[in-house]
Amino acid sequence: MIIKHSIVGTKKLNKALAKLSPEINRRVREELIEGGFLIESTAKKSIQKPSSGITYIRKDRPNHVASKPGSAPNTDTGNLVRNIFTEITDKKNSTKVIVRTDVEYGIHLEFGTTNMEARPWLFPAIQKHKRGILKRINQIINNSLKKAGKK
Known about the structure:
Number of strands: 4
Largest sheet: 2 strands, antiparallel
Strand content: 15-25%
């Protein structure tokens, strides 16, 4: 017994998908970049929003209130906030978006040290927006595929 099957319209669908591919890539890239800037903004705002904690009295500069462990760090000099940025790298058909800092103590605040508990500022921002970013990317892809199927 021989069983045969065929799917009608695959050539038409493949042509439509080939045309959509650059459009999907462009729109997903835009969403990734927008998501990166959203995470960056949220991270910065979390640091700039004052919270209670221990006050350190200093003679040579203004006092500093260190946030409670587990809370985003309170800004002191503004150096960390000024140096959080979104880095965008494009290669062929892919885009990499990284929100990061070059400030050495940023990682110590995020994860803690042997002498200080963590005061995360980036991971909570990622968690806050990750689901929405992925949902919008899925919508872009699904809508494009539906559009391709109708052509």
